[in-house]
Amino acid sequence: LPPMQSFYQGWLFISACLKQRKCKQVLASTRKLHAGAEGSKVSPSAAPERLPFCRVTEEDLAFFRKILPGRTIVDPDLVEPSNVDWLKSVRGSSEVLLRPQTTEEVSQILSYCNSRNLAVNPQGGNTGLVGGSVPVYDELILSTSLMNKILNFDSISGVLTCQAGCVLENLSFYLEERDYIMPLDLGAKGSCQIGGNVATNAGGLRLLRYGSLHGTVLGLELVLADGQVLDCLSTLRKDNTGYDLKQLFIGSEGTLGVITAVSILCPRKPKSVNVVFLGCETFEQLLKTFQLCKGMLGEILSAFEFLDSECMRLLNTHLKLPNPISDCPFYIVIETSGSDPTHDAQKLHNFLEEAMTSSLVSDGTVATEEAKIKALWSLRERVTEALTHDGFTHKYDISLPVERIYQLVTDMRKHLGNQAKSVVGYGHVGKTT
Ligand SMILES: Cc1cc2nc3c(=O)[nH]c(=O)nc-3n(C[C@H](O)[C@H](O)[C@H](O)COP(=O)(O)OP(=O)(O)OC[C@H]3O[C@@H](n4cnc5c(N)ncnc54)[C@H](O)[C@@H]3O)c2cc1C
């Protein structure tokens, strides 16, 4: 379902043996998801015929070895992890992994592949959850993992410019030392790369506060399928000179070219951060809490996330993460971040008092110290991981009007019956405009 104005985002995760049919074009090639990584039977409709791309020859490898000495990987054991996605639901059969370090090398690779009619699959941290990061057949994998240099940070404007292969968490560490933060944060931050974040238009936990990458990404450097380098690496917040081409590449999943560098506007590190973990009896109460929260916390509200009791069960069972409050059908993680600890604490106190006295929430706990904040956040961030321990996960990332998010979970439970081991709902409750 396409995101729409004034709609809200929620994520649904379903453990079931279903076939995905999402398709993606990589540069010149048409791609669809394919057989399950664990060898499930190929559905005739799940994968297209392999298009008439050429197969890699010894001469091709000789060319790649010349431009990427020691970084043209053909050892099957080393290529294997790049052929399987994070959820282990799809598998490709590429025999070549290319690891460029510079834009010039990416350009040479794509120009050569274009002239030789070789299909290419760009790959960042391989944490994507819709199968787009791995090949369908034998496409060459172009990994940006070695393109991990920070190119510039302007401490006055807060604009960071870096290569596309920088790992999100490393960028966060770098910025925090300089009193700034990344405008996005996700559970996959330890592995996902900024280029992959841009290519997937990742939302994440801070979207409610800092908006989407369409607003925070100021510039991109790109290499098109024929090797042409497109320099849209502006660092200006206001740039109304002609077409804003970079927007086309945000969310393009590698279909239009390879992102090689990103400049992004980073907010100042908040001086005070509080995290609250609350329990609600119904989803309706959860939504009322969201409304109350927006009204009472206003400008300091930085995240509002939810998970259901089934998620909590999986977190307890598979990751041994204890529930910090009493058992409830729904749980909320609220984060505030601001510049005045006393002011923020007072606002939060007023909000909690109102939420408790009006019986919107039945239990809760507050964290202000870093260790407890991390522990509460991990209950939301590690749900995806807990699911992977429970069996094959079929996952939808969807945007729906906020009041209808959970209806989809209950409908799917009814629809799937005992065909699914568990059907769970969790995600961001926030405006996506
Ligand atoms: C635990 C977990 C939590 C997550 N949480 C969120 C979340 O909160 N919000 C959200 O939106 N997503 C979330 N995701 C999914 C999210 O899309 C990815 O984690 C991340 O954005 C992908 O980055 P990556 O570097 O791993 O890209 P990959 O997985 O390697 O690639 C993803 C896609 O981008 C393309 N691509 C990668 N790099 C480039 C490049 N340099 N140029 C062109 N194309 C490229 C690939 O071809 C592929 O189509 C989560 C995933 C996990 C595992």
Automatic annotation (TrEMBL):
EC primary class: oxidoreductase
GO MF assignments: (R)-2-hydroxyglutarate dehydrogenase activity; FAD binding
Domain of life: Eukaryota
Keyword terms: FAD, Flavoprotein, Oxidoreductase
Gene3D superfamilies: 3.30.465.10, 3.30.70.2190, 3.30.70.2740, Uridine Diphospho-n-acetylenolpyruvylglucosamine Reductase, domain 2 (3.30.43.10)
Cellular component GO terms, alphabetical: mitochondrion
Protein name per its UniProtKB record: D-2-hydroxyglutarate dehydrogenase, mitochondrial
Gene of this entry: D2HGDH
